[in-house]
Write a sequence for this structure.
């Protein structure tokens, strides 16, 4: 008898019919003799509906009250799933974040889980119950309701799997696993059978929207295997775990793309100590999240500094940078929000030379100009014109076909 | 500085616009220097929508899960009202039943409040907050979410007012106070300025739908004055309290009607000890709630026994009675579900003779046949044909006009 944690996303529980389908999948796990804890997201657009309701009341609703409001979406879905299982004759019980013992700090809208007090869940499991936990929410030590922000339900599921010592955290959604590239862009893209945590982290950070980096980091920390699959079919999915077999490691795993890139260049910056801090500390204070930073080699103690942000933050970033540029004596500011990113990811490239060369050559053969390059040990990213991104992904997928195989 | 508890019903908070209107009314209380705790119901049809969602999942949803589901309606309304007040610049905080310390037994769907642990509310009030409490819900000692059943939010409000020692519990809804008769039936009906608890209880039990008897009983127990008024205007309402002035007591307060009456007569019952128990114990066990019971004078040790039930329970009651009638040797069963009740209520009739005679004479003058009569110290009820009820209410309102004045 193993303990399984399953997490179902919003589209998987979008309608009463879908909830009944999910109940059948959950029951099947119970029938084969395993214990199961299920984490659910809010039904379909429920969270968006609550957000627009709040927008009709206040432009900037209080984060504390937003969390009370938003937490109801997952409560509804969890109660309905428990009802569906009860109706099928199974012992099932829904638990709120508070009841499930998911303790968080008090950063409303983006709370971090501090600990999981799993006694109640363990008691219900021991009594033969299927336990349904409302995802995305927790409770502070002062009994305040919090939500976990983006990727919150995934984080709930991984945290519970870690605390309960589950065999696996199955993440069930409307897409089959992780692909060698976005199947909507590259028809030949294939499902990846397994990935290491670092590989999945790089993919998630560089444009693969299947999972938020946060849940993957937590899974890596507690060494919880995540199985990503579809709740709409029985196709095999992707296992994300720590001990990827050696042979599989020696490959490029996936080509990722990200269209949401804007670039800002501060031109003619005096190259002296503290200049980077002078630019980026005020940006951080203004709540602007800077992604890639590149500083050109300095000529006559003058350099250019380029960084990227998401497009919705570009206007604000430019505004902030104008003030800063004056103070530090920079000559000019240039910006471009028609950019995208293409990345190749895989632990294989860590010890094998030539991946970067092959990537640049492939882009060059296709007359795609590279604006910026950033790399990690297991990833190479090129920032290019937005309208060439899909072409680049297709070309790279083809160029690295053997590795992706 | 006084402490006021206000309760707003579903129509009062049905839309974001209505919630903003309610926020203004609440703010006005705070502005005049009083402390205020607000209890809210779910928005408009929210509870009905949740019930129909559950009906799509299971025919008989688990009561525990229904309570998790239904409790979300009041959470949403309370968070939105707190947001509206925050947006207006007021310190306001929403609390769930659990956070507000509303402890109940574990009878899901119809929980009874066992105690109110008001520390959290008192702390927030002391810090200058307007406290918004989600009505209709509580929590058991095992942290299980419960709902209070019919009239639940009224009960929450009265219980909080009692526990906090509030000056008054203001119940704000879409109707102005209590009238001398239903204004839809009797155009001349006037608002009653004040009523005793017993009078309101009799009215509520005999057809006035403004409040459930349960909340009134609780108010009487803790001597909490209830002020019933409209949230849609500033018209004066009705004060329900214990110390109604002597002069006001000497009157008929209101004429009530109830269309939901069915009558069953067990004909030719042997009149011997234990016969009433033989009939009514099995009915109670079948979950049938019997209202009025009348036993005719016995002739030759044979009598007729008549009782009334609500219409939706008639078929079940007749079925149960058929089995019982055979056992006790009754001759026949007769039933009629086309009946209604008309009642006059007022502590005035307690010490003054002639009210009953005048009521019967008025009905007789209008050729309305009386099927059954039941009385309490402060109420006289006649059960008559359904299609004569409105006529009877108008005639009685006219006949008792001086007292109603």
């Amino acid at each position: 008898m193993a303990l399984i944690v399953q997490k179902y996303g919003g589209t998987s529980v979008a309608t009463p019919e879908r909830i009944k389908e999910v109940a059948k999948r959950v029951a099947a796990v119970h029938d084969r003799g395993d214990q199961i804890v299920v984490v659910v997201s809010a039904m379909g657009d429920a969270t968006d509906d609550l957000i627009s309701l709040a927008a009709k009341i206040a432009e900037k609703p209080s984060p504390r009250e937003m969390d009370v409001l938003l937490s109801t979406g997952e409560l509804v879905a969890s109660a309905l799933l428990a009802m569906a299982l009860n109706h099928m004759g199974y012992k099932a019980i829904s638990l709120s974040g508070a009841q499930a013992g998911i303790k968080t700090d008090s950063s409303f809208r983006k709370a971090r889980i501090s600990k999981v007090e799993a006694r109640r869940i363990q008691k219900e499991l021991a009594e033969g119950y299927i336990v349904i936990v409302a995802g995305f929410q927790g409770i502070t030590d002062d009994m305040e309701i919090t939500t976990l922000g983006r990727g919150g339900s995934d984080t709930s599921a991984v945290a519970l799997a870690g605390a309960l010592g589950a065999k696996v955290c199955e993440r069930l959604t409307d897409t089959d696993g992780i692909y060698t590239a976005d199947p909507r862009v590259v028809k030949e893209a294939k499902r990846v059978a397994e990935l290491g945590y670092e590989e999945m982290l790089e993919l998630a950070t560089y444009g693969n929207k299947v999972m938020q980096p946060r849940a993957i980091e937590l899974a890596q920390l507690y060494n919880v295997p995540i199985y990503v699959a579809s709740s709409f079919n029985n196709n095999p999915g992707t296992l994300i775990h720590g001990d990827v077999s050696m042979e599989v490691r020696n490959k490029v795993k996936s080509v990722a793309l990200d269209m949401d890139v804007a670039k800002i260049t501060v031109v003619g910056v005096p190259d002296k100590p503290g200049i980077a801090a002078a630019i980026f500390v005020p940006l951080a204070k203004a709540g602007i999240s800077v992604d890639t930073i590149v500083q050109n080699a300095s000529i006559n103690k003058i350099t250019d500094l380029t960084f990227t942000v998401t497009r919705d933050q570009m206007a604000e970033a430019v505004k902030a940078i104008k003030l800063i540029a004056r103070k530090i004596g920079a000559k000019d500011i240039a910006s471009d929000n028609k950019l995208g990113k293409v990345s190749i990811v895989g632990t294989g490239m860590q010890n094998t030379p030539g991946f970067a060369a092959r990537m640049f050559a492939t882009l060059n053969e296709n007359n795609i100009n590279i604006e910026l390059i950033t790399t990690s040990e297991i990833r190479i990213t090129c920032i290019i014109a937005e309208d060439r991104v899909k072409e680049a992904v297709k070309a790279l997928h083809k160029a690295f076909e053997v590795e992706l195989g």
In short: Chain A has two domains: 3-174, 256-404. Chain A touches chain B through 38 residues (CB under 8 Å). The mean pLDDT of chain A is 92. The longest helix of chain A spans residues 63-87.
